[in-house]
């Protein structure tokens, strides 16, 4: 029962890659490997995007930068990461 539900959920996604990589020898299906690689790439790309967008109708240049206490936790993490990257780039010119 669980295998049937799992198969029903995953097969539509895997069928995309089964059309690209046919089974080897009729039994060895390598499409899940490609499916996991693609899913991992999309997950990594989505995690790299900023979580929140500025309010509509307000230009980015005209708005003042909020203080750290006015930011959400994810925004504080991004700002800290960007500040650390810019300070390390300034210390190590290539």
Describe the structure in brief.
With 94 residues, the protein is an all-alpha fold. The protein contains 3 helices and no strands.
The sequence of SSEs as H and E is: HHH
Distance between the termini: 59 Å
- Total strand count, please? 0
Give the percentage of residues in beta strands.
under 5%
**Gyration radius, rounded:** 22 Å
Low-pLDDT residue intervals, each spanning 5 or more residues = none
- Largest sheet features: none
**Portion of residues within helices:** 55-70%
Overall geometric form = elongated
The mean pLDDT is 78
How many DSSP helices? 3
Structural class, from secondary structure content? mainly alpha
Would you kindly provide a written description of the structure presented here, covering whatever features stand out?
The chain is mainly alpha-helical and 94 residues long. It has a domain at 1-47. It has 3 helices and no strands. The longest helix is centred in the last third of the chain and has 19 residues, at 73-91.
Chain-wise SSE layout:
Blueprint: H1 2-18, H2 31-48, H3 73-91
Helix pairs in contact: 1-2
How would you describe this structure in keywords?
0% strand; 94 residues; elongated; single chain; 3 helices
